Amino acid sequence: MTTKPQPQPGIMDIALYVSGESKVEGKTEVLKLSANENPYGFSDKAKEAYLRSAVNLHRYPNTDHAPLREAIAEIHGIDAGRIICGVGSDEVLQFIVHSYAGVGDEVIVTEHGFSMYPILARMVGATPVEVKEKTRVVDVDSILSAVTPKTRVVFIANPANPTGTMIGEDELYRLAKGLPRNVILVIDSAYAEFAEGYDGGKAIVNEFANVVMTRTFSKLHGLGGMRIGWGYAQREVIDVLNRVRQPFNLSETQMTVAAAAVRDTDFAERCVRENARWRDWLRNALVQMGVGCDESYANFVLARFSNPDEAAACNVALKADGIIVRPVGSYKLPNCLRITVGDEAACRRVIHVIATFKGIR
Ligand SMILES: *Cc1c(COP(=O)(O)O)cnc(C)c1O
Predict the structure, then answer these.
(1) Which among 263, 289, 307 is the end of a domain?
(2) Which residues form the Aminotransferase class I/classII large domain (predicted)?
């Protein structure tokens, strides 16, 4: 017998999640481009809903999230009965590992994949199995060849964070088709709205009983501070996930704000348009300066420097100007900095500092 309480297997192997920094020592006017937040804030309608919700704080929220699920279903053209809502999409991802993986099981993640995935696998005692990507793009063949009888869940983000790259619908289908039917494929579509013409994986979910798509209000809708996300899958999976969800996981405020945000399609469309415009501008400006940059399908770009030292030095130069971006050494991209696409002024400022750093201006 041990002399102290022992945490469950895997828990002490978790390296704590590191979020984008938000402060620079000695600077008051910082430009935060480290967490893929919306530079245009959030919808006025969401703000009105937030204020309206203040009269009901003594009431428990509804447990079935019906009004929010109906708003999402209406806007996305999907079945409200196959949606589950969570405290950020992170909670929906947690429902998935909690329900489908455990001690001794394997969870496939990719080389530069979102750092929450291995954390979630370890939370339930499962082993994260990391597979190679192909020049910063998820590689369907390396995922399929890593599948073993112990595999329970595969996590990919499409578009991916922090690379900004994505795989096409044909490759997604090939992945879904190639996986054993007992393995859950998670298509994390946190950035789906920024990829023109992409449905986030909705059609694949309709076709495969083992695919879950997750979405968030944190990125396009600018509500990272409110913590709301959702998942879409076939009914049997949603029924399983609802069993591990706490009945009051979302407050009335979270739900009414999210419903107002999803219905404000004018605001969302404007943000998508501006993002696409300044994302292309940023990428072109970087490439012209000799800084590598893959085409991004998200609301950030990944600036690729010649080596880790140059990336670190550029990060120092940006910080000295009060600009916070995201070093991604922990994502096996030590020569890169992830930069959120800000508004016009932010993009111009960031490029000005990088150009000065490169000795170009
Ligand atoms: C930001 C992000 C999320 C969203 O997290 P929330 O919990 O909804 O705020 C999910 N997946 C990826 C890849 C992300 O970058």
Answers:
(1) 263
(2) 29-354
